[in-house]
Design a protein that fits this description.
The complex is a heteropentamer of chains A (252), B (234), C (363), D (293) and E (290). Chain A has 252 residues and is an alpha/beta fold. Chain A has 10 helices and 10 strands. Chain A folds into 2 domains: 161 residues, Rossmann fold (3-Layer(aba) Sandwich), CATH 3.40.50; 83 residues, Rossmann fold. Chain E has one domain. The termini of chain E are far apart. Classes of the chains: A alpha/beta (252), B alpha/beta (234), C alpha/beta (363), D mainly alpha (293), E mainly alpha (290). At the D-E interface, helix 4, helix 10 and helix 12 of D face helix 3, helix 4, helix 9 and helix 11 of E. Bound molecules: adenosine-5'-triphosphate (2 copies) and magnesium ion (MG) (2 copies).
Chain lengths: 252, 234, 363, 293, 290
């Protein structure tokens, strides 16, 4: 359960996020939309600890995580993908995913040098979990490829698989459909829905591709100039004149 | 002969074949769309035209002359590429990004152009001293297009210009694209958003696995089964 | 690529020197001196009908390389004797290793630690072929006090240079023993090239003379900077202020006193200097003559006892009254340094070297 | 034979130091130009403990390594949170500082004249066994989660943090591991040459080690081993070139880096799996060749 | 007397500043520490000596000769050691390794020519110092101070406000995209190396005048590196400020505690500095955006 209360973030003179609040629980999909520069990515950056919030709190399952270091936030169960893909070059697809699982592996620094039984078991376990993550996004057959040689859409899926391996309770997806064609977008929306259906985590989704965000979100938050201008179901939001004016424009 | 033509172009990255015998043509003031799924080779095609990638074989001609091999000379001819993923210079301010875009020109002319761009995208004017790297995704996209226009293109290569843009802005960008076309500039447009791309273009190519699978006017392709199934999600 | 079959008519000696690296000018000089001696003998038909071949091993100024070079010389190339470097660090590293073999190692290190073990007995194969630092340091101090009447000294030395460090204590001890004072002692390290602040501290104390044992280049900088700061007093330097220091300084070298192995003004030394310059285009320094003497001592040993390295070692240990260019050499079996070898104090008039005093170095 | 053993021993000691660099540079993408100073700490500390205080050699080595790691921790502290360029330059400054201390602390270290009288405890067997154990440990480390995390943060630090990797901690771990290995090579070195002086441990030495890692292939431990043997054997083989030796050496390294940027082996490792694959490829190639002939 | 020390510190600082400027120029554009820079200074100094000063030419021709040959050498170095790495788009790590090797190569050539001998520039001035009050100032130090100030201001202006400068900065962020703007990236990079080489030649001559000429003259470049850390990596003005500070700090330390432990204290100060102000004096703090 994620509770974000009234977070603010300024950059010099620019107010990127103002008074943003949100509550999400397992199995839900929340969409965040808004014009470019409205502060959507900044919200994700604050939640995941890349930026420190100027004000406000982020509470996950009763723990205040607002000021934790990034990797601790990630270990508490906040996983994300990036607007501009950020994969680990030089590591295979499988190892990219395993890196995300590694902080949950229990063997100690001793196991780094000696192939203890614990290490073998844990590595085996990690391998299986990560293959399962890859399988969930349909990437298991690329496990040994190098990510930089994969087409864009597959890289996006790999980022999601990597986030899944963090064993998240909140999954933050920043424009996962950017660069996908309509067919791929519909595959992706099936994927996100199926992930959410597992009820393991809540999904927060930033997206400009309305066909995706409008069809799968239960609740949509519309941001403009850092402020939330509307919250509601896709239908409510679509009909909201302020949203039409600021973001959607009239259908051609 | 066409004003701009690509003949029999092939590109490899190591063992990966990105393009196989691709040919296409474009005329003055046309919008030519290229659609295709991920990894089809669209970006590779644009990168080859703009000289960033060397083809294994093939010929690219502009006004009946073969293109030079170096990227900066190709820009000199007026073939300008707005790259995928924006590629703004993160540590330069918006204004410097635009001025670098107009690298080929100097003096008063340059500042005149700058003013024009600021009129086209007022947001950029308000933020002209902000570092490009801290702009939001969509803001960077606007900057990238605007920067491309600073080079005064005769042919503009746009790689997924609507990527990450809000719907309203997508419409604006397409308006801009139309306006650019109307000023007699040829546009080669690579898009995932096939419906939009096909509805605006004069001619379109479908690229699959590095090969041209189909070609026709936008309208023809919009109604073709192949395109409907694979690219429009119908 | 040695032809080991030809060995019967050939005697091999090795020269382990810094041929590349920061101290290569010293190593090359010793090497050329030794080679000249050997060439002269070979031209006359060699010793006992055998020619002498000299193999040079480059240490690159690196201890590890030096150990490999040394091992190669004594185990693979089976040299009869070795000529060592004038650089203390390399010689210090090789001393304990030389103990494992029985090949004499005639070097020019002046640090007594090179030839003498911690327990006071000498390393069996190590021989210093010029007066030790103890001797040289005290000579310079004696000269300054007795002949010049200086009473207050400032010292600036390179603390990362073993040679310079070894010349520090003997000088200071002698000054103190004579009831005089060292007002300021400052040190610098290899990377320092700006001595103004250090010199400033010394000049503040108002000293009669500045003592600085160091390599030529540092001495030049110290001279230039001290003079530029208005210091008119005496500068007392070690071996490396010998020519070509005067030509490199680029200004008058007045009021500089330095110690040397040779009297540079002696006619037959000048003749050698000229002929080497003419034939090999080398500006010889005192290291050249030291190398030349070692070469000739080895030749004499080979002639007397043959190519057996143990016999050569014994011969060198008992060497008496050898008349070399750098003086009369008699080896002290207790210290493995020469006994009673002369050192010559010099000064410059303008840039011309002038001989002042001869000292017989007693240990 | 003595020469061969002597060359092999010193090469293997270098190899251990290069492996230290491999952990840091090859795996984690960080540079240390003061790595040789940690070798100095290992060499001087172990030497002093044995010579002046009569400690047994193995205990002295352990204490020396511990001290080096402690010092490494202090040096690493401000840098692991910064951009990666910093660590190379900070360690460079550290190297200068260590040299100064060694020169200055004459009563302990012997100053510039060096530290003499270390007993020759380092035997060829000891060095060989140490090298094998260390290579095995590093190979294990590389395929452990820690090794994986090192590679991850080399690829993208921000993303690494976002998936829960404690970036400063991993950097520090890699740095200290490499410091420990290098310090141990210093212990071996001191008791092999029996003499150490401050000038041995300059930044050029560290740079040489970095070059060896790259020459072999920045991602390959096997490559690092191979390159060490080639590049430290080379000067010995090239003795006949005399003055041209270092020029030839540099030219060769430049050629490799320019024309085979991934180094000799790239990221290929000598594993049973890769070996079988190689054998298969070769036999396939032979067959084809046979047919054509 | 402390005024004299201040002046000495400034003088040393301006030596370091000149070194740091040329070095950070390349760092700025290609994001790597050019470890060949030291060897380039040495070469520049020797070219100035053999081609000019040894023929009896004066200071200005010598400086020009050194700068021109430094520039040519910079260009050559770029072609030999860096061009291919650039073409392959390899990571900065390769530049680093290549630059160390290039440095060794150049130093090797110098040693081949001059051995470990050293040379001394002839006297360019009647007297080498002048006095203001009781303070003695060396003429070459003063010139160096002025020249490094001019070089820095000129560079800063060019980089910040001119077309070439903008091109240079854009190349430093993304070479491919810079070429899409019509910038001849290879030319810009060569230009950078040439300017940096010319600065190396300039510093080389002054180092030579102050400290005599010898094959490892360039090892002073280490001070330039340290200065640029103190000043903030990648910032040109930071490098200069850092250099002047470093020079003064060293001089004061030498005055107070002698030369021996000065590097230790310098290092400790650097550590503390990084802990307190990690981005250096003038380094800007652009937050990484995801
Ligand atoms: N590090 C930073 N420094 C200065 N300004 C910043 C920084 N990060 C973001 N901003 C500004 O904050 C605002 C919000 O940016 P953000 O990236 O959150 O937008 P967004 O809603 O994700 O937009 P898009 O849909 O285009 O990705 C933008 O105006 C951006 O320029
Ligand atoms: N630098 C590279 N090295 C190796 N393979 C590459 C490289 N760049 C692209 N590829 C491969 O070439 C093929 C074509 O890639 P390209 O980027 O041109 O596709 P695209 O049509 O632009 O896809 P997208 O819609 O994802 O942008 C893909 O299989 C891709 O993996
Ligand atoms: Mg965003
Ligand atoms: Mg593309």
């Amino acid at each position: 359960m994620l509770e974000i209360t009234r977070i603010h973030k300024n950059f010099g003179g620019i107010v990127a996020v103002q008074d943003f609040s949100l509550t999400a629980s397992q199995g839900e999909i929340h969409g965040i939309i808004g014009p470019n520069g409205a502060g959507k990515t900044t919200i994700f950056n604050v939640i995941s600890g890349i930026y420190a919030a100027d004000q406000g709190t982020v509470i996950l399952d009763g723990h205040d995580i607002t000021r934790l270091e990034q990797h601790k936030i990630a270990r508490k169960g906040i996983a994300r993908t990036f607007q501009n893909i950020r994969l680990f070059k030089g590591l295979s697809v499988l190892h990219n995913v395993m890196c995300a699982f590694d902080s949950q592996t229990r063997y100690s620094i001793l196991g780094a040098f000696i192939p203890t039984r614990l290490r073998r078991e844990e590595e085996k376990h990690g391998h299986d979990v990560c293959m399962a993550c890859l399988a969930r996004v349909g990437m298991e057959k690329y496990a040994d490829e190098m990510p930089e040689n994969l087409p864009y859409g597959h890289q996006r899926r790999l980022e999601i698989a990597r986030a899944l391996a963090c064993h998240p309770s909140i999954l933050l997806l920043d424009e996962p459909a950017a660069g996908l064609n309509p067919t791929e977008v519909s595959e992706l929306s099936d994927l996100i829905v199926s992930l959410a259906e597992s009820k393991d985590f809540a999904v927060l989704l930033i997206e400009h591709r309305l066909e995706l965000v409008m069809s799968i979100s239960q609740l949509i938050h519309v941001q403009n100039f850092g402020k939330t201008i509307a919250t509601g179901t896709p239908e409510e939001v679509k009909a909201n004149p302020a949203v039409i004016e600021a973001y959607l424009g009239k259908e051609e | 002969m066409a004003m701009f033509s690509v003949e029999d172009l092939s590109v490899h990255y190591g063992y990966v074949t990105a393009l196989k015998n691709v040919s296409l043509t474009a005329e003055r003031g046309q919008i030519v769309s290229i659609i295709g799924s991920n990894g089809a080779g669209k970006t590779s095609l644009l990168r080859t035209i703009s000289g960033l990638v060397k083809p294994v074989h093939g010929r690219i001609t502009f006004m009946d002359k073969a293109l030079p091999h170096q990227a900066h000379k190709i820009v000199g001819l007026g073939i300008v590429h707005v790259p995928e993923g924006r590629g703004t210079f993160s540590g330069l301010t918006i204004q410097d990004n635009l001025l670098v875009g107009g690298y080929r020109f100097r003096g008063g002319q340059l500042h005149q152009d700058l003013v024009e761009q600021y009129e086209l995208f007022p947001l950029l004017k308000h933020r002209k001293t902000q570092f490009a790297g801290t702009l939001s995704g969509g803001e960077q996209q606007m900057l990238a297009i605007s920067r491309g226009l600073m080079s005064k293109p005769k042919i503009l290569l746009l790689d997924e210009p609507s990527l990450g843009l809000a719907p309203l802005v997508v419409n604006q960008v397409y308006d801009v694209i139309r306006r650019i076309r109307d000023s007699d500039i040829t546009i080669i447009l690579v898009e995932q958003n096939a419906r939009k791309a096909l509805s605006i273009c004069d001619k379109a190519y479908v690229l699959e696995n590095g090969e041209i699978r189909a070609t026709g006017t936008g309208g023809e392709l919009l109604s073709s089964d192949l395109v409907k199934k694979a690219y429009l999600g119908q | 690529a040695g032809s080991k079959e030809a060995a019967a008519s050939e005697i091999v000696i090795g020269s382990v020197q810094d041929i590349t690296g920061p101290t290569s000018s010293l190593g090359k000089m010793v090497d050329s001196g030794a080679r000249l001696a050997i060439d002269e003998v070979n031209a006359k038909g060699g010793v006992n009908g055998k020619t002498i071949r000299i193999i040079t091993y480059d240490t690159k100024g690196d201890v590890n390389e030096a150990i490999n070079a040394f091992t190669r010389a004594v185990t693979t190339d089976k040299v009869s004797a070795l000529i060592g470097p004038p650089v203390a660090n390399i010689a210090l590293a090789l001393a304990p290793i030389s103990e494992r073999y029985s090949v004499p190692f005639l070097n020019l290190a002046i640090d007594p630690k090179v030839q003498i073990k911690a327990d006071g007995t000498p390393y069996k194969n190590m021989f210093g072929m010029q007066p030790s630092a103890d001797q040289q340091g005290s000579i310079m101090a004696q000269y300054a006090i007795e002949k010049r009447g200086f009473g207050k000294f400032g010292i600036i030395y390179n603390e990362s240079n073993a040679y310079a460090v070894s010349l520090l204590a003997p000088f200071v001890d002698t000054v103190k023993a004579n009831g005089k004072t060292v007002a300021v002692t400052t040190s610098y390290t290899a990377n320092d090239k700006d001595f103004k602040t250090l010199l400033n501290n010394i000049l503040q104390a108002g000293v009669d003379a500045i003592y600085s044992p160091g390599y030529t280049q540092e001495l030049i900088l110290i001279t230039q900077q001290a003079r530029a700061m208005g210091f008119k007093g005496a500068l007392i330097y070690g071996l490396d202020a010998g020519p070509p220091f005067n030509n490199l300084l680029g200004e008058s070298a007045d009021n500089i006193y330095f110690i040397n192995n040779i009297d540079t003004t002696e006619p037959h030394l000048e003749a050698i200097t000229k002929s080497v310059k003419a034939t090999q285009n080398i500006d010889v320094t005192n290291k050249f003559f030291l190398g030349y003497d070692i070469g000739n001592i080895l030749v004499q040993a080979l002639g007397a006892v043959g190519s057996d390295s143990v016999a050569i070692r014994d011969y060198v240990e008992n060497l008496k009254g050898y008349q070399g260019l750098t003086g009369v050499i008699t080896m002290d079996a207790k210290t493995h340094f020469p006994l009673g070898l002369e050192m010559v104090m010099h000064t410059y008039e303008g840039t011309t070297p002038v001989v002042l005093e001869r000292y017989s170095a007693s240990y | 034979m003595a020469l061969l053993i002597s060359i092999l021993t010193s090469t293997l000691i270098t190899l251990i130091a290069v492996i230290g660099i491999y952990i840091l540079t090859g795996m984690t993408g960080l540079f240390s130009l003061g790595q040789a100073s940690f070798m100095a700490i290992g060499a001087y500390t172990s030497g002093l403990l044995v010579v002046k205080w009569g400690l047994p050699f193995p205990l002295a080595c352990l204490i020396a390594i511990f001290l080096a790691v402690l010092v490494g921790w202090i040096v690493g502290l401000p840098t692991v949170r910064l951009r990666r360029d910093y660590i190379s330059l900070v360690t460079l400054g550290f190297g200068e500082a260590i040299t100064a201390i060694l020169n200055r602390a004459t009563p302990l270290t012997g100053g510039a004249a060096g530290f003499v009288g270390i007993p020759p405890y380092t035997s060829f067997t000891l060095v060989l066994v140490s090298a094998v154990i260390i290579i095995a440990a590093v190979a294990m480390f590389k395929v452990s989660k820690f090794g994986r995390q090192c590679s991850a943060l080399r690829g993208d630090e921000l993303a690494a943090r976002a998936v829960g990797i404690n970036v400063p901690w991993i950097k520090m771990t890699a740095f200290l591991f490499s410091v420990a290995v290098t310090a141990y090579s210093g212990c071996l070195y001191a008791f092999y040459t029996t003499y150490v002086d401050p000038s041995i441990f300059g930044w050029r030495k560290s740079a040489d080690w970095v070059i060896m890692v790259f020459f072999g292939g920045s991602g390959s431990l096997t490559g690092a081993v191979l390159a060490t043997f080639i590049l430290s054997g080379l000067p010995e083989i090239l003795r006949f070139l005399a003055d041209y030796r270092s020029i030839f050496y540099a030219a060769l390294v430049l050629l490799i880096i320019n024309f085979k940027p991934s180094g000799l082996l790239g990221s290929w490792e000598l594993t049973p799996k890769n070996l079988r694959k190689l054998a298969r490829d070769i036999s396939l190639f032979m067959k084809k060749g046979g047919k054509n002939a | 007397m402390s005024l004299q020390i201040l002046i000495n510190g400034l003088a040393l600082g301006s030596v370091y500043a000149l070194i740091a400027t040329g070095f950070s120029l390349v760092f700025n554009v290609l994001k790597f520490s050019n470890f060949a820079y030291g060897a380039m200074m040495t070469c520049g100094a020797f070219f100035g000596y053999f081609l000019s000063a040894a023929n009896g030419w004066g200071l200005v021709p010598t400086l020009l000769v050194a700068m021109v040959s430094g520039a040519v050498l910079g260009l050559l170095g770029q072609v030999i050691a860096f061009q291919r790495i650039l073409n392959n788009n390899s990571s900065p790590i390769y530049f680093f390794v290549s630059s160390i090797t290039l440095g060794t190569l150049l130093e090797g050539f110098v040693t081949l020519k001059v051995g470990a001998n050293f040379y001394n520039y002839p006297r360019f001035f009647e007297s080498s110092t002048f006095k203001i009050g009781s303070v003695i100032i060396s003429k070459s130090d003063a010139m160096m101070f002025v020249l490094s100030a001019i070089a820095l201001l000129l560079l800063a202006y060019v980089i910040k406000y001119t077309r070439i400068g903008r091109a240079l900065r854009s190349v430093s962020f993304n070479r491919d995209n810079a070429s899409l703007m019509g910038i001849n990236v290879t030319m810009i990079i060569r230009l950078t190396f040439m300017v940096s080489g010319a600065l190396a030649g300039l510093s080389g001559v002054f180092l030579g005048i102050n400290y005599t000429l010898y094959p490892t003259l360039g090892s002073l470049v280490v001070k330039g590196f340290i200065a640029s850390v103190i000043g903030g990596l990648g910032s040109l003005s930071g490098a200069v400020i850092g250099a002047v500070l470093l020079g003064m700090m060293e001089t004061f330390l030498i005055h107070l505690i002698g030369s021996g432990y000065a590097p230790v204290v310098t290092f400790l100060i650097m550590l503390v500095f990084l802990l307190v102000r990690p981005r250096g004096i003038a380094g800007s703090n652009v937050q990484e955006k995801a």
